[in-house]
Amino acid sequence: MKFKRMLLGFSFLIGVPVLAQTPTYQDVSKPIEERVKDALSRMTLEEKIAMTHAQSKFSSPGVPRLGIPEVWATDGPHGIRPEVLWDEWEQAGWTNDSCIAFPALTCLAATWNPEVSHLYGKSIGEEARYRKKDILLGPGVNIYRTPLNGRNFEYMGEDPYLSATMVVPYIKGVQENGVAACVKHYALNNQEFKRHTTNVNLSDRALYEIYLPAFKAAVQEGGTWSIMGSYNLYQGIHACHNKRLLQDILRDEWGFDGVVVSDWGGVHDTEQAIFNGLDLEFGSWTNGLSDGTRSAYDNYYLADPYLKLIREGKVGTKELDEKVGNILRLIFRTSMNTGKPFGSLGSPEHGKAGRTIGEEGIVLLQNTNNLLPIDLNKAKTIAVVGENAIKMMTVGGGSSSLKVKYEISPLDGLVQRIGSKAKVVYARGYVGDPTGEYNGVKSGQDLKDDRSEDELLAEALAAAKTADYVIFIGGLNKSNNQDCEDTDRAALELPYAQNRVINELAKVNKNLIVVNISGNAVAMPWVKSVPAIVQGWYLGSEAGTALASVLVGDVAPSGKLPFTFPVRLEDVGAHKLGEYPGNAGELAQSTHAGDTINETYHDDIYVGYRWADKEKIQPLFPFGHGLSYTTFAYGKPTADKQTMTADATITFTVTVKNTGTREGQEVVQLYISDKKSSLPRPVKELKGFKKVKLAPGEEQTVTLTIDQKALSYFDDAKHAWIAEPGKFEALVGSSSRDIKGAVPFELR
Ligand code: BGC
């Protein structure tokens, strides 16, 4: 490679070699578009085709002859996936690829803190760079439409504004490292059940108002260098080669100049892949090749079949040059960016970052009589019950599964923090998923337990009876039909008879704390008999330390829910309207396994709290909800004007005071309500928020500014965003159901 580069560095003048300038494509001082053009002009047809598809599970070849490096991708989005074999999903068995696992993206969204999101992106970007990866497959921003979606834990919740705001700093942080973020899964991959064959139909209004804003922000504000097409279909065409999504919206409307990567095996048709905006095909044995066939890359849709069509003159090379141009641009931004940092893996700083994200994302859902934080001066014995107190959660769940440098379990975290002050006793309580292996990475835990449900319960009750506090740590895990890729949950209820255990614990000890570990809402039929409830997410390497510091009050909780906890499934639009999961029932009778399932989003724009507000349903815990160990008093919100003109902004001001005795953080939320509109509108929509840290007694003035974008709806008929003059109301609150004050204003 060096030799080739040297040759390129010479030109020949009347037979005498003289040292020439660096070729344009290698010259970092030249504008990137010139470099792209120059590189393209030097490449053969075969070299170009080679760049548009994988050469291994996670890489594409580059152009060795020109010294253009390979492109290496990695999962994403919670940590850097262990190296896998060239041709297999199995881990390669390296001894130097153990990472820090950061909290799942639902937890990040729950921080409602863009600075924390930047810290996340920067830290994971550094890990990716150290591992010499050019594309990080994440973050995910599919909207949380049903609590059954097995992959919600990889996304940022139900609200387009929140996820759009939180995704941008993550991308910037990653890309500061010369690593491309790859935002996924574009678009409408809102369930895992039959994800390859579900055809989504919805109104343009729902598409633009609910499902696209986070992707649009990722492109236009985050400047993401790549995006991943999703597995599902939209309007009858797979998203990985869907002209409307990729060409019309992503490139033409949003001006995306990065690489569209297919989801692995998401391509189904060569011509569509050529013409509809896909750039780079990755796969899992595609093109009719049977599962497990090795080195199938030449058969990929954008490999030999593409080359053949060009050679036969059936398609031209314009699209090929566009694809390769996009890939070259990414290479110049990443691996051929000579100014990029070197990164670091598994560093103490990354562990600390993971812990901070976890501490800020944990949500205190309920705290009757201020049971929490645990009073270490009074507690002599603390009983910890539940499998999730000990189970490693970084192994499993699908492609986001990790091989971690370490993972501190909740039980270990609690023992470390309080073991010298109080006795911690542990009882399993129930057996859920004792397995712990993913693609050759083993958790190393032996969680097999053959005791009966009654025996496990009896042990837990015995421990609980004599304890000062009982902490039940349960919820879901990352096994099939829990929170796991490729499967959806079967029900909203907690699995493995956990409700019985919780109910019985509540009877024997009134100081019961339930910590729910999940990336999804769960039903809580025992909500009235459990004083303290904490949403604990999947917290990664520092799970136990983050959780312990919140439980004992080293840190006051400040997370707010990024999605609604419904009481029951029927309180969710997609379920109430009976459409989830599409016409799968009819197809169960069908003999064609690959038949498409049609799913129309009749819930339209009414997703999450928008549905609950419209139907006047009281959620179990509303969107934006989260308590602290201190209290906050809001002043009366005001606006800087009563009437706003179309191109102006309006600023709302509210004071927030910490009225308790300890430091805490509050997320001030701004919802906009359109009082009268030509089209039906949600009761209110989140359009601004700010997280503030306040010392005891401290008061701060929070300002939130919006422009007419915050007042607009998407009009299908006009294909345009419309801010309709008329009366609006700004609602300022501590959650979507705890509005502290309203300010009327008008748009002229
Ligand atoms: C997932 C992607 C992932 C890819 C590579 C696919 O099955 O849907 O999110 O990035 O595999 O592991």
UniProtKB/TrEMBL annotation:
InterPro entries named in the record: Cellulose_deg_GH3 (IPR050288), Fn3-like (IPR026891), GH (IPR017853), Glyco_hydro_3_AS (IPR019800), Glyco_hydro_3_C (IPR002772), Glyco_hydro_3_C_sf (IPR036881), Glyco_hydro_3_N (IPR001764), Glyco_hydro_3_N_sf (IPR036962)
SMART domains: Fn3_like
Record key words, sorted: Carbohydrate metabolism, Glycosidase, Hydrolase, Signal
GO biological process: carbohydrate metabolic process
Any one GO MF annotation of this record: beta-glucosidase activity
Pfam families: Fn3-like (PF14310), Glyco_hydro_3 (PF00933), Glyco_hydro_3_C (PF01915)
Leader sequence residues: 1-20
Gene3D superfamilies the record matches: Glycoside hydrolase family 3 C-terminal domain, Glycoside hydrolase, family 3, N-terminal domain, Immunoglobulins
Protein EC: 3.2.1.21
Domain spans labelled Fibronectin type III-like: 666-736
Family of the protein in this entry: Belongs to the glycosyl hydrolase 3 family.
Protein name per the record: Beta-glucosidase
Native source organism of the sequence: Bacteroides reticulotermitis
